[in-house]
Amino acid sequence: MRVDLSLTMELTQKLVMTPELRQAITVLQLSALELQQYLQQEILENPFLEIKEEPGEREEVAAAAEDNPRSDNERFDIDWQEYFADRSDLGYVNQPREVYPEHSYENFLTRGPSLQEHLQIQIDLAFPPGLEKHVGQYLVGCLDESGYLTVTLTEAAQKFGCSEDKVAQVLEVIQTFEPAGVGARDLKECLLIQLQQSGKLNNLTERAVRDYLEDIAQGRMARVASGLGVSLQKTQEIVDLLRSLNPKPGYQFAGSNEVQYVVPDVIVERINGEFVVLLNDSVVPRLGINSRYRSLLQDKEVNEPEAKKYLESRLNAASWLIRSLEQRRLTLYRVACCIVDIQKEFFRHGIKHLRPLNLKQVAEIVGVHESTVSRATAKKYMQTPQGVFEFKFFFSSGISSSEGNSYSSQSIKKLIREIIEAEDPHLPWSDQKITKQLNQQGVPVSRRTIAKYRTEMGIPSATLRKRY
Q: Hey, how many other C-beta atoms are within 10 angstroms of the C-beta on 294?
């Protein structure tokens, strides 16, 4: 068998992941707050970038490109021509931006004390300077975010060279602090402390906590009633009391150092019966090219090759970043308009009218890749007449009825919740009964789906919902 070797030429086209393209992708997927921090860092590193207090002409970037013949003109499979085109057909007009005080970060920021800080104040009031105060400070430092003690009395005693009784005395004082239940070593002790402080600790409630917590959690009310020797109605009262207690008393302080807040990227308003999409430009600074540094490229006194090369590279980087920001705005606007158009009934009538939607559908309508839609909607929020929602809220699976009606998972969950809220608590609806009811309404859903959605909403089963 003869083997011939030959050379052939083949022309192929592929997308090269350049630093500029990587930056464009990064800018697209950042949230508004992350983007603000990112731009602040870029401004510090690139002298060509400056914040435009008043929006000027977009021709600055184009002029910068003309001034620099070595500007990167590659398109990287991205259509940039619309960056600087008139966007009036998209409902956007380049107007002076107003400052919306309600969107100012300071109006959202609030920092409460941590659990340890809250308890330290009470330590200072409860103990004089000395060993007991040091032990108390140590024990407070050993509490987890739920408020439970994570060290044993033996470990604490060994650390300070004192008796376990001394540590126990200090812990007993800490367990009288607010929030009630803090300093407990397990769930039972936590609940007993809260009952003690509220004056509701008695023989029945103590026995219910010590001996029947598992039965209560599983809804075995008859067994609890029999064990306590009381009626089902009395057992229900005890269970209701226990459920009103806080199993994680310290959790209200968790995350006090990292307050979470959101600023909408898009605002949807209803004007004359029509929904209008507005980009919230108040949270992201508009960038421009610094004219002073740009003029240096034309300065004949700057004739050192290295200096020229540095200035050209910084100008290219600044121009590309501004283009990336414009593309981000355009993509976000188009995606938001598409979502609003598809989900009009939701904006008019609420969650029961939310339609099933996926990224592919939006990508096909907008004319971009599915991954672009995914990045454009990541960590973005939309302020609507129905409230503030994360973009991903509008994307959900669903089912279609034989009549052609579509139901999203969110709308089905809403129907399930309404049925359960209207049920007789003494005769709660089973998943099978809820399934039958929805089927009669034309929603072709199975019992397994009902159970799944109910669990996702944190709604217990009919057995656990039953009241006596």
A: 18
Cα–Cα distance, 452 to 397 (Å, whole number):
13
The string of pLDDT tens digits covering residues 19-57 is 778 888 888 999 888 898 899 999 999 888 888 865 444
Structure tokens at 281: 């430009």
Any idea where the domains of the chain sit in the sequence?
19-106+263-365, 115-253, 398-468
User: In degrees to the nearest 10, what's the CA dihedral of 36, 37, 40, 42?
Assistant: -100
- Give the bridge partners for 357, in sequence order: 396
Tokens of 320: 């590309």
- As a whole number of angstroms, the distance between CA 83 and CA 95 comes to 16
Q: Which CATH superfamily is domain 398-468 in?
A: Homeodomain-like (1.10.10.60)
For 246, residues 6+ apart whose C-beta sits below 8 A from its C-beta are 179, 180, 181, 194
How many of the other CB atoms lie within 10 Å of CB of 442? Answer: 11
Q: Is the pTM higher than 0.85?
A: no
Which residues contact residue 174 at a Cβ distance below 8 angstroms, ignoring those fewer than 6 apart?
Answer: 119, 123, 136, 139, 140, 182, 183
